[in-house]
């Protein structure tokens, strides 16, 4: 699949790159996408929620009143869940929410997501760029030129680039990742995917293993 390469002003450079059909033009597997996104969201949960139960509350263990003759229900401990300050019944406990998926399924999910975005004409290839000093204003100007100013965008770099990353960090609707950080969730969460030329080889190598 041939795609025109744009410059940072949004104009065609006259060059074209060949996007691999095995990555950008497969039949999407919706179930693989579902499983990968489900795993990603599950891994965002810390699982540190905890409430003290009856056995963990500090308090006296003496019987607080006699068994009979009070006219009220019997009660044996101040730590009972029915009293203020008592333990919580079936409260939340720390839990590990991590899920395991095999690598082939995760690759299939990412290829399916990229193929969906390509089919929607939401993927563009832009020549590599850099900033001498990080500057959000310059990054916003590039987004304007590409028609992405008010859209959720995902910019994929070939290698880590501190200048580009720092320039985009304050922008809520734009995210910069390297080709190794690409995930199914991030692909689907963006309206447009901007692939820098230097990222293509890494993406195709990683997803065609």
Automatic annotation (TrEMBL):
The name this protein goes by in its record: Large ribosomal subunit protein uL4
GO MF terms, alphabetically ordered: rRNA binding; structural constituent of ribosome
Recorded superkingdom: Bacteria
Gene Ontology CC: ribonucleoprotein complex; ribosome
GO BP terms in the entry: translation
Oligomeric form and interacting partners: Part of the 50S ribosomal subunit.
Source organism per UniProt: Maribacter luteus
SUPFAM superfamilies: Ribosomal protein L4
Biological function: One of the primary rRNA binding proteins, this protein initially binds near the 5'-end of the 23S rRNA. It is important during the early stages of 50S assembly. It makes multiple contacts with different domains of the 23S rRNA in the assembled 50S subunit and ribosome.
Gene3D superfamilies: 3.40.1370.10
Pfam family, one: Ribosomal_L4
UniProt record similarity statement: Belongs to the universal ribosomal protein uL4 family.
Annotated region (Disordered), positions in chain: 49-77
Alphabetical UniProt keywords: Ribonucleoprotein, Ribosomal protein, RNA-binding, rRNA-binding
């Amino acid at each position: 699949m041939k795609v025109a390469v744009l410059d940072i002003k949004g104009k065609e450079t006259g060059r074209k790159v060949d996007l691999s059909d095995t990555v950008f033009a497969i039949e999407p597997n919706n179930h693989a996408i579902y499983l990968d996104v489900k795993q990603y969201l599950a891994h965002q949960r810390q699982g540190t929620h905890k409430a003290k139960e009856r056995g963990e509350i500090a308090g006296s263990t003496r019987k607080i009143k006699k068994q009979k003759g009070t006219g009220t229900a019997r009660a044996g401990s101040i730590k009972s869940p029915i009293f203020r300050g008592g333990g919580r019944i079936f409260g939340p406990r720390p839990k590990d929410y991590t899920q395991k998926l095999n690598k082939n399924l995760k690759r299939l999910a990412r290829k399916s997501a990229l193929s969906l975005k390509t089919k929607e004409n939401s993927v563009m290839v832009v020549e590599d760029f850099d900033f001498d000093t990080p500057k959000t204003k310059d990054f916003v100007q590039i987004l304007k030129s590409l028609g992405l100013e008010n859209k959720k965008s995902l910019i994929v770099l070939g290698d880590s680039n501190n200048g580009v990353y720092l320039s985009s960090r304050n922008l809520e609707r734009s995210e910069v990742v390297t080709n190794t950080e690409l995930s199914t969730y991030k692909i689907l969460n963006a309206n447009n995917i901007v692939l820098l030329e230097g990222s293509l080889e890494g993406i195709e190598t990683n997803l065609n293993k």
